[in-house]
Structure formats: C-alpha cells, structure tokens
Write a structure and sequence with these properties.
- There is one protein chain.
- The protein is an alpha+beta fold.
- It folds into four domains: about 110 residues, Beta Barrel (OB fold (Dihydrolipoamide Acetyltransferase, E2P)), CATH 2.40.50; about 110 residues, OB fold (Dihydrolipoamide Acetyltransferase, E2P) (Beta Barrel); about 40 residues, Dihydrolipoamide Transferase; about 210 residues, 2-Layer Sandwich (Chloramphenicol Acetyltransferase), CATH 3.30.559.10.
- About 15% of the residues lie in helices and about 30% in strands.
- It is built from eight helices and 32 strands.
- A six-stranded mixed beta sheet has the order 23-32-31-30-26-29. Strands 1-8-6-3 form a four-stranded antiparallel beta sheet, with no helix packed on it. A four-stranded antiparallel beta sheet has the order 5-4-2-7, with no helix packed on it.
- The longest helix has 16 residues.
- It is globular.
C-alpha cells in the first residue's frame, strides 16, 4: 500500500519548508533510513530520512520550492502502483499517522489557532521554546522532568526536558544554544501544544518584559508530527524526523556518523556506536542498526527487570465511620484513553462473538518447542500467530471503515494491548504473518518491557490493523474489549481452564480457552466474524498447521 510522506516539522517554529535538494528521483528504490531530500527550515538545512521501503512513485514539491508543514512531499509504494487517487486528493491532504496505514480523505490542514501564547516582542538573540507536538494525537503535554535549570548553559542538541505525551514519555532536545533564562511549565504541570515551555538566550538577558508585555496570536498550520512506524498513523516522525547527521565522538576520539535518535537509543542502552556498522547512506548509523544490539553487562552490575512494577500508595488509616476521598490528577495517557475509547464505543456499532477452544495440543506443542535451545514461546504468541494467519484468509476483518469507503489492509500489523502504570498502550508487531512464533515472542517481550518503562516511541504504537488483548494471565476466563480504532475488530483472550467436556459421548477433562471477538458491524458482519473465529480455532487446536 502506498505511503504518503508529508512535509515534516523539523523545528519547533517551522511553519513551512523548502526542498533544497532531492537525493532520490521518481522510480528509485527506497530503503528505510535512506535520505530522501535535504529540507531547508527556518533554522537550518537538514537531511530527511525515509521511514518506508519501496519505490519513490511521486514527488510533490520540486527542488527549490517551499510548502507548508503537512503538505504532500512524496509518495512511496510498490512499483507500478496506482496513486492517482492520492495525488488528485490534493497536496495538502494529511496522511493518517502511521506507516502502512490508510490515507485519509483530503481536508484542509491550515487553521488559525486562537491566542497561541507567543510573546509579542522578543529581544535579539532570545528564542522562545514552545510545547512541541510529539505525537500525531497530542493536544497537550506534561513536563515529567526538567534536565536543565534556569541559569544553565544549553547547547543545541542538549536534552531540555522529558515530556509526557498521550503515548509515551519522550526526551525533548533544544534547537538553540544559550542560557536557559525562563521555565514556563513546571515539572508535573501540563499545557497545550505551542504554549511557552522555556526561553533561551544570552546570559543576563531580562525577559520580564517579554513575559509581561502581552501575547500575540500565532497563525500556523497544526503540526501533526507524524510517526514512522503508534492507532492510526502519519508520515513524519517526531523522534527521528529531525534526522540530520550527528557526529558522535567516542571515548577513543573516533568520529561516528549517527542520527539523533540512534544516538539517544545508544546512550539509553549503553552501546558504543563505534562498534556498530551503519546501514544508512555513507555508513550513517540509524535506528534499525540498534535493533537487537545490547551493551555488555558490567561485572556485578544489576540487571534491571523488563516489567516495571507500579509503586503502591501507602494505605490510608481511617477511624471507624470516617470517610476519605483523594483527588488524583488524570495523566495525559489516561485522558487520551478515555477520549479514544469513548469515540470508538459511541461511534462504532460493537457486537461480540465468543468461541471456546481446546488447547491440549497447543500445550503439548508449546512444551516441545520450548525444549529447543534459545526458544521461548508463550500461549499469547501462538494466539498472535494464529490471528495473523486467520486475517489473511478473512480480509474483511482486517479493514478500516471510512465514511464513503472501506480500506482493506493487505498487510497484517498486530496491536498487543499492554497494561502500564498509567493505563494501557498498544505496541504494534508489524507484518506478523511473516514472522515465526519465536520472533513474535521476542518482539512482544521487548516492546512490553519498554512500554512499562515508557521507552516506546509513538512510531511503535501506530499502524495496527487488528488488536489482541489478553487477560488470561490474571485468571479472567471471559471478557469483552472496546475496538482499538481504526481497527474493525479486537480479540479478547481468556485464561486456559481445565474443565469437563463431552467427547464422543464421554466426559473428559480438557484444557479450554474462551476467545471473544468484538466487531465493528459497519465492516464485519456476524457470519464473517464467526468464520474468522472458526479459522482461529482450527489453527490453535491443530498448531502444526501454523508451521506448514
């Protein structure tokens, strides 16, 4: 499926960009991480990476021309694919925010935001840093931690703060060098996108007049920072969108070319970049080069658990008959969960189908597979693999409803619901139908661990075509879930329970598991959902069929 690439927002004040140079031409093969173009922003000329692989089918902005953020920059897809509908839809039509996601109908993207707090008069050399839009659905952010304090020297590329979005807690880099003169949003406080986050400028500059001198209204296109790879998706990524090459100096003095995101991932994992070979252009190290890379464990160093446990609040001691109420501010994640699930429940007409699956053969197959070296397969991995294969046979379940058309996804990206301290996130296993059971298991374990420590990027939580929610490990035998839009269905997986069943007229003890499919009746009729569950049941009751 063709992917629309929009003009990215590569700086916090960028409203439009100019294509300084195209490094690829129509018809060229594109790999993820290739540099597509050099884009001139209001601050610098920066390299812009592709987050997709395929063929460059269309260039929307010629060299030397400028366009607003979110304008159609390029289209990448399969060679010979018909993209006339995407082009005729208008260059300003925004793409849905995830790779391999559907392209939304063309709608104007430029709008005036009233009373955006930008100081009216700014002294020379003083830069206003506003709350950035770090995900496609972000409307406001919370400052989790300030890593700089007023009076500190700030260099371009320094991490100013950790900002909690509706999807993750992300580091926010400074685009400026100078002294941190003012902090506009304190730790733990929230503010809408584009509110004043900080002021950076020459040491000793008095910014009181700026802060008290009134605010001007800013006119800008909404900065839908699209993510490359997190619920229906976009195209330019917040984490690595500003993908200019960074030269990293190793302890040995060696110079290494790496993208900013790769640099941060390496720092988090304690990985020496000089030990990696970059797959980007000119040997540049990019995100995919760090996938699976680990740092050597120092002797005696503790190994942190992937599953972070939530800290429990101290128990409140009450006297007999006493009442007590505590008000806890809703996190960004909790507010967005409430909004998205309400929209899904009250928009999509849900109905539910339940089937019972005999899991004795699956238990025996799992036990045999886990006897192999370096193999660890869970029942959840088996359910995910079975879902991916069943979706290939029942394409109507792997769809997305639009008001005037239905999108049939020919790829299978499985969302896996993961409980975290503040709520729920859904990391996405891409092309799950093409992965082995052990690979699915490894990806789920990695993503679930990073989800609980808020290390997932928005890109890793976008683009799902079907979602699985499993509460079996908590002893829940049967439950229903709300559909994760824009999916057409979600599967609820219960616990495996030994019970008496009738087989060939005789009572026998079998290991049984209940699966409940929530369907959007606009796209999936009852018979279609039932046939999908029958196929899923066949795969799980005869797991050897998943290996054929």
């Amino acid at each position: 499926m063709a992917e629309v690439v929009n003009m990215p927002r590569l700086s916090d004040t960028m409203e439009e960009g100019t294509v300084a140079k195209w490094l690829k031409k129509v018809g060229d093969a594109i790999e993820e991480g290739d540099i597509l173009a050099e884009i001139e922003t209001d601050k610098a000329t920066m390299e812009f990476e592709s987050f997709y692989s395929g063929t460059l089918l269309h260039i929307g902005i010629p060299e030397g021309e400028g366009a607003p953020v979110d304008s159609l920059l390029a289209i990448i897809g399969e060679k010979g694919e018909d993209i006339s509908g995407l082009i005729s839809g208008g260059a300003s039509a925004p793409a849905t925010p995830a790779p391999a996601a559907e392209v939304a109908a063309a709608t104007p993207t430029t709008e005036v935001k009233a009373a955006t707090p930008v100081p009216a008069a700014i002294p020379e050399g003083v830069e206003i840093v506003t709350m950035p839009r770090l995900s496609d659905t972000m409307e406001e952010g919370t400052v989790a931690t300030w890593l700089k304090k007023v009076g500190d020297t700030v260099e371009e590329g320094d991490i100013l703060a950790e900002i909690e979005t509706d999807k993750a807690t992300m580091e926010f880099e400074s685009f400026y060098s100078g002294t941190l003169l003012h902090i506009g949003i304190q730790e733990g406080q929230s503010a809408p996108v584009d509110d004043v986050l900080a002021i950076i400028g020459p040491a000793g500059t008095d910014v009181s007049a700026v802060l008290s001198g009134g605010m001007a209204t800013a006119t800008s296109a909404p900065a839908a920072v699209s993510a490359p790879a997190a619920s229906a998706g976009a195209v330019s990524a917040p984490a690595e969108a500003s993908s200019q090459t960074v030269q990293v100096t190793t302890s040995g003095g060696e110079r290494v070319l790496a993208s900013p995101l790769a640099k941060r991932i390496a720092a988090d994992k304690g990985i020496d970049l000089s030990q990696l070979k970059g797959s980007g252009e000119n040997g540049r190290i990019i995100r995919r080069d760090l996938e699976g890379a680990t740092a050597p464990q120092a002797a005696g160093a503790p190994v942190s658990s992937a599953a972070a446990t939530a800290s429990s609040a101290p128990a409140v001691q009450l006297l007999a008959g006493q009442e007590s109420v505590e008000s806890v501010k809703n996190s960004q994640m909790r507010k967005v969960i409430a909004k998205r699930l309400s929209e899904s429940k009250f928009t999509a007409p849900h109905y539910y189908l339940t089937i019972e699956v005999e899991m004795d053969e699956a238990k025996a197959a799992r036990e045999s597979m886990n006897e192999l070296p370096d193999t660890k397969v869970s029942f959840n991995d088996m359910v995910l693999k079975a879902c991916a294969m069943a979706l290939l046979k029942h394409k109507q379940v792997n769809t997305t409803w639009k008001d005037d058309h239905t999108l049939f996804n020919h790829h299978v990206h499985l969302g896996v619901a993961v409980a975290v301290e503040d709520g729920l996130v859904v990391p996405v296993i891409r092309h799950a139908d093409q992965l082995s059971l052990s690979t699915i298991g490894a990806q789920v374990k990695d993503m679930a661990g990073r989800a609980r420590t808020k290390k997932l990027t928005p890109a890793e939580m976008e683009g799902s075509t079907f979602t699985v929610s499993n509460l079996g490990m908590f002893g829940i035998e049967e439950f229903t879930s709300i559909i994760n839009q824009p999916n057409s269905a979600i599967l609820s997986v219960g616990a495996i329970v030994e019970k008496a069943v009738v087989r060939d007229g005789q009572i026998a003890i079998r290991s049984m598991m209940k699966l409940t499919l929530a369907c959007d009746h606009r796209t999936v009729d009852g018979a279609t959902g039932a046939q999908f569950l029958q196929t899923l049941k066949t795969y799980l009751e005869h797991p050897v069929t998943m290996l054929a």
